[in-house]
Amino acid sequence: MLSSIVTSITESEPTFIAGLDYGQKQDQHLDALRKVIFEQDGVSTRPQYWFPYEVIELGAHSLESGHEREFAICTLLVVDRCNVCAVT
Predict the structure, then answer these.
(1) In this structure, how many other beta carbons lie within 10 angstroms of the beta carbon of residue 42?
(2) Average of per-residue pLDDT across 41-50
(3) Phi, psi torsion values for 29, nearest 5 degrees
(4) Which long-range contacts (CB under 8 A, 24 or more apart) does 20-25 make?
(5) Distance of CA 50 to the CA centre of its chain
(6) Which of 76, 68, 69, 72 is nearest to 36 (CA)?
(7) N or C: which end of the chain has fewer CB within 10 A?
(8) Which of the 8 DSSP states describes residue 76?
(9) If you average pLDDT over residues 53-59, what whole number do you get?
């Protein structure tokens, strides 16, 4: 189950996260990120490794001033993925 921090994501936060790979393929990252959060309870599938997991990993490894929530959301998604992988 996703953290309430992740599920409280605002409109602008996924857009920021999706643009973390220098804005490359931001629309694909954004669509996949929304699916992972709102449709898949935070669990990304193997085909979603690049979209959106690439930007989730980037977000979890770089804290930018003013974007602390995005950092926390990405970190929680990474931790949640690790928990799912450990169970399966």
Answers:
(1) 21
(2) 81
(3) -65, -45
(4) 20/55, 20/58, 20/59, 20/62, 21/54, 21/55, 21/58, 25/51
(5) 11
(6) 76
(7) C
(8) H
(9) 96
- 34, two tokens: 């929304």
Query: What DSSP designation does 28 have?
Result: H
Query: Mean pLDDT over all residues of the chain?
Result: 89
38 residue type, one letter: F
Q: Examine the pLDDT at 30 and tell me if it is beyond 70.
A: yes
**pLDDT of 88 above 80:** no
**Do the beta carbons of residue 71 and residue 60 sit within 8 Å?**
yes
Distance CA 59, CA 18 (A): 9
Give tens-digit pLDDT for 65-86.
999 999 999 999 998 776 555 5
Cβ atoms within 10 A of the Cβ of 51, count? 21
Tokens 């003013």, residue? 66
The pair of three-digit structure tokens given for residue 77, joined into one six-digit string: 């998604």
Task: State whether residue 49 is helix, strand or coil.
Answer: coil
